[in-house]
Design brief:
With about 500 residues, the protein is mostly beta strands. About 15% of the residues lie in helices and about 40% in strands. The chain contains seven helices and 25 strands.
């Protein structure tokens, strides 16, 4: 998600996406970690928007932009690794034609461990201070059991003629520096490595190496986007593959890679979050499967209005295609169509007992209605209700409705979320102070809005900063937002 008035930084699991605006400098950074015989390393893939930097004329008459970059990796405030360099654009003849990105890749050796990763970007040709951002990362490649590298998204690849910084496993990989795929992108290409399968699988046996897409909200595997192959174990396996996403509906997804033994036991896995925008891919009435509903719990739901409301309530956990059906076709669907859709959805989630799966979810709908419903919104339509339904109840819920300087707010903390994220937090606030509709203003969870100005926006009840780039506030008496945000997990 991009915000035009302040810094937006979105960090995503081990493979991280950052969208940043630092004094009009737009940069997109992703990174991935790998192992090698020489030890672990991190690769950074940085893309700078040409129309966000200043081009100056060189002696040859052409124009060029330059960005100063500093990356540091710290442990207990001690620098363990760093990279400081200048990134220059290609030379251009016309400064009105800067609608392009210039891309850079770096490879930095770094041992296993937990680090505070900080990046500073500054336009060399502007008198504007660099704006830093830091994020905790973990590099963990065990020596006694299998593990996957990060998943690197790839724009294109060719056989390597001469090894260079883009080369891995005999291929030159041009990185795809985003985790967003617009409509004009019809395929997803990715690269990853699997290490040490020969430690746990006998040389005479095979194991299953698989990859597939799943819905981010429900972790539901999409069978049409799943592939697998049997492999013999070795020290390092390379997976360089493509997935057609031409018909993948708009939504949030995970790309999943897995290794399983002959007993179908999961040995290692890795996930990468991404977003797809594809308006042309929609579920229509004709796409609803001819599911047999006779003698099922759905057959007993004969009130069309009630069933339509039930289907609306699943929107927070629906897949991309399910959401498109709810948005585009639900209002005109007849009872039989809705029954088939509703049953197929719950059957897909629990083939053994779809009715129990629905009853459990409906119980959660009741809870969010009681706790988060407002005079103008049903509980599942609110931000707090949506987060509760998607991730479950928070481990801690700090509520402050009467602080001197802040709007009423809540901070939720999850020790572990259902998509394997740890220690994630959500900040909700009520700017109108009347309807009790608390809006999500910031989170450090994958796929959620990330607003580095949230403390300032929370304090807009009494003042508004003049510097739209500012992300810090002066502590005020009685305000506890920072304390609640820093609660230990």
């Amino acid at each position: 998600m991009k915000k035009s008035l302040f810094v937006v930084l979105i960090f995503i699991l081990a493979f991280t996406t950052v969208t940043s605006q630092a004094r009009n400098l737009w940069a997109f950074l992703t990174y991935a970690t790998f192992n090698s015989p020489e030890g672990p390393y991190i690769e950074t893939y940085l893309s700078i928007a040409g129309n966000s930097v200043k081009f100056i004329q060189k002696e040859n008459g052409k124009f060029q932009a330059t960005v100063n970059i500093l990356m540091t990796f710290k442990q207990n405030n001690e620098i363990k690794a760093f990279k400081k360099y200048e990134l220059s654009s290609s030379e251009i003849e016309d400064t009105t034609k800067t609608n392009f990105h210039f891309v850079d890749q770096q490879r930095i050796p770094i041992p296993n461990g937990s680090y505070d990763f900080e990046i500073e970007l500054a336009d060399k040709n502007k008198s504007v201070p660099a704006l830093p951002y830091s994020q905790s990362i973990v590099i963990d490649f065990p020596s006694d059991k299998p593990s996957f590298s990060s998943i690197e998204l790839v724009k294109s690849y060719t056989k390597s003629a001469t090894p260079n910084i883009l080369t891995k496993s005999g291929f030159d990989l041009i990185p795809y520096t985003y985790t967003f795929f617009p409509e004009n992108e019809s395929k997803m290409t990715f690269y990853c490595e699997l290490y040490l399968m020969d430690k746990v699988v006998d040389v005479n046996q095979k194991f299953l190496l698989s990859y597939y897409l799943e819905s981010f909200e429900s972790n539901l595997k999409l069978a049409d986007y799943a592939r697998s192959k049997k492999e013999s174990p070795k020290n390092t396996h390379v997976l360089l593959s493509e997935i057609s996403i031409e018909n993948l509906a708009s939504g949030n997804y995970n790309l999943v890679v897995e290794a399983r033994n002959q007993q179908n036991e999961l040995i290692a896995s890795k996930k990468l979050f991404f977003q797809r925008m594809n308006p042309k891919a929609k579920m229509t009435l004709s796409d609803i499967p001819s599911t047999e509903i006779a003698n099922t719990f759905v057959e007993k739901i004969t009130n069309a209005d009630s069933l339509r409301e039930y289907i609306n309530s699943i929107y927070p956990v629906a897949t991309g295609f399910e959401k498109s059906f709810i948005r585009e076709s639900l209002k005109k669907a007849d009872l039989a169509t809705m029954q088939r859709f509703f049953y197929a959805m719950w059957l897909q989630r629990d083939q053994n007992n779809p009715e129990m799966a629905w009853k459990y979810y409906n119980d959660q709908i009741t809870k969010v209605q009681v706790n988060f419903g407002t005079p103008v919104k049903k509980g599942y339509q609110t931000d707090r209700g949506r987060v509760y339904l998607q991730y479950g109840p928070p481990n801690t819920r700090s509520t402050q409705y009467n602080e001197p300087s802040n709007y009423p707010y809540e901070i939720w903390q999850y020790y572990t979320m259902n998509n394997n994220q740890r220690n994630r937090k959500f900040v909700f606030y009520s700017p109108d102070m009347v309807t009790s509709d608390f809006i999500l203003m910031h989170s450090d969870a994958t796929g959620e809005i990330n607003n580095q100005r949230w403390k300032i926006d929370l304090r807009n009840r009494i003042y508004s900063t003049l510097d739209i780039q500012d992300t810090q506030v002066i502590r005020a008496w009685g305000d506890m937002e920072q304390d609640y945000w820093e609660l230990p997990n």
